[in-house]
Amino acid sequence: MTEVVSLPPNGRPALVLNADFRPLSYYPLSLWPWQEVVKAVFLDRVDIVAEYDCVVRSPSRELRLPSVIALRDFVRQDRPPAFTRFNVFLRDGFACAYCGAQEHLTFDHVVPRSRGGRTTWENIVTACSPCNLAKGSRLLRESQLDLQRRPYRPNNYQLQDIGRKFPPNHLHETWMDYLYWDVELEG
Q: Which of 62, 127, 131, 161 has the most Cβ atoms closer than 10 angstroms to its Cβ?
């Protein structure tokens, strides 16, 4: 049975796949709100792969709301990822590079700025507040801390691969054929 809604169908985003039927992004998961999806359908920029049991209507048309769409044109993802706090946290698995803690995360310059360290992928790590405060403006060899892993400049593939370890709280059943997670999902 198809659900017909009279109010906006909020909470029904569509999973966006590239033209090769792979998600544009795993973390954050590439989702578009229903309004963007309907617009893209009418502009003929996407193909509908799967639908919700929900119909939206205009005065002249009726459309089952898409739950999975694929872009018609392939989006290259070979540009380097942006250097952002979020991407540093993602690269480091949302865990302190010194002790592995997952709370009160900040980022730390391995070679402190006061000692000539730069704000680059290779010199920034995720650090919990206690480790960051304990290290202060000291070099690693002067502190009691050791890095569990060395910082590096990730590529998009590496960030997406890491992102698969963090599935979102809500996954629609029609998305499952296109998502590949490293963890067991509860049904």
A: 127
3-state class (DSSP) for residue 60: coil
User: Nearest 5°: phi and psi at 84?
Assistant: -130, 160
Closest among 58, 79, 53 to 173, alpha carbons compared: 53
pLDDT digits (tens, 9 = 90+) for 3-21: 444 444 567 899 999 999 9
Burial status of residue 13 (CB atoms within 10 A of its CB: 0-12, 13-18, 19 or more) = buried
Q: For residue 38, what is the enclosing H or E element?
A: helix 34-42
Contact assessment for residue 149 and residue 117, using Cβ atoms and an 8 Å cutoff: no
Q: Which residues make beta-bridge pairs with 32?
A: 14
pLDDT in tens, 27-57: 778 999 999 999 999 999 999 999 999 888 8
Contacts of 108 (CB under 8 A, 6+ apart): 97, 124, 125, 126, 127, 131, 132, 135
Phi-psi region at 11: left, alpha or beta (left = phi > 0; alpha = psi -120 to 50) = left
Query: Which helix or strand (DSSP H or E) is residue 62 part of?
Result: strand 62-71
pTM above 0.85, yes or no: no
Q: How far is CA 4 from CA 35, 46, 59, 173, in A?
A: 16, 23, 14, 20
DSSP 161: H
Q: What is the DSSP string of 116-152?
A: T--SSTTTEEEEEHHHHHHHTT--GGGSS---SS---
